[in-house]
Amino acid sequence: MRVASDGDLIEIFGLESAPERGDVQMLRLSDGRESKYLAVSEVLDIFSVDGDIVPSALPDQHEGIVQVGDEMIELVNPFQFFEASQSNRFAGGKRPLCFVEAREDDLWERRILEPLLTASGYKVSYDVADREKAEVVLGKEDSDASEQVDGRLLRLRDSSFAGPAAHPSIYRYDRIGLISAIEHKLAGGR
Q: Does 52 share its domain with 37?
């Protein structure tokens, strides 16, 4: 579904088919260059978020959770709508492969990191056979230093505080930093 706005056809998120009758209420989201539209059933209230935002288990969909009065409110991650239009940005439809060092029971990598990478247009593999052909290798902060994988290794740390570490790493919840670091690796950076 799309909406005509200023001569452009812009995708509407959250609307699978045209309503049989009536209008569609939408929120217009803008990053200053692009606009996206999100269909909503109704707008109940507008308020400022003053308290802490608790991270969401689904960061690609929800920025986090806040308490407003007695209610827990999920904050929509507006970046997902802009990222969705970027997921097909790779030439010829070839999506770069990210190999993720993870065990079967490493839930964070599978529930949070993989959806983030997939939504950003990357393929994700945990299969060791794919490690050599991957454009980027993501590992934990304590990954073996001899496993530099020709400069493709990005180390992810659990803490937002980098501290004095033997190797550079990225905070695993720094979505913008992570995607930027992957793009840097793909552009030939070390």
A: no
Same domain, 118 and 93: yes
The whole model's pTM is what?
Answer: 0.55
178 in a structural domain = yes
Same domain, 96 and 122: yes
pLDDT at 143: 64
CB atoms within 10 A of CB 86: 13
Which residues is 5 bridged to in the sheet?
A: 8
Note whether residue 84 is domain-resident: no
Q: Domain residues for 157?
A: 89-186
Amino acid identity, residue 46?
I
Reading the block at residue 116, the tokens are 């983030």
35 and 71 inside one domain: no
- Please answer whether residues 9 and 3 qualify as being in contact, where contact means their C-beta atoms are separated by less than 8 angstroms: yes
d(CA 56, CA 12): 24
Report the alpha-carbon distance of residue 139 to residue 143 in Å, rounded. 6
Alpha-carbon distance of 43 to 25, in angstroms, equals 9
Taking only the tens place, the pLDDT of each residue in 128-176 is 999 999 999 999 887 664 455 568 899 998 888 877 766 788 898 888 8
> How many structural domains are present in the chain?
3
Q: Rg of the chain's alpha carbons, rounded to an integer?
A: 19
Yes or no: say if 3 and 10 are a contact pair by the CB < 8 Å rule.
yes
